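Progress report, Aim 2. The chain analyzed during this reporting quarter is listed below.
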Amino acid sequence: MMEKTLKSLMAIVAEEVGNNRVFARKLEDELIKQANDLTKARELEEQISGFNPNVVFKESGEDGLKQALKNRSVAALKQIVARHNLDPSNQLGGRVTRGKIVEIILIAAEKRAKRDAKLFDY
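Predicted structure tokens for the chain:
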């Protein structure tokens, strides 16, 4: 049922593209935009894959973590915060500075390290 519906829908879109140049151009522009967005998202994912600020803090301390974050883009820093749930109270909000994001990451990593130390202190 779904396959038949999708084929029918795509036939209508293809027909409209053939008949309406303005629609065709808008569709092309949107497809290009979506492809660019996907490419950027994948590149960002590659930049942060395998990076865990909690591990870096534990192994290298605050200075080591600062150094590891130094050359990362704001978008990458935001992605790190989101991936590791480092801002559960949403202190970052909308537009934030690079320094504020790094500060949130450092605070969260330090809290995590202290909590882990207490948890595994026998």
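The longest helix spans residues 21-48. The chain has two domains: 2-44, 52-119. These observations will guide the mutagenesis work planned for the next reporting period.
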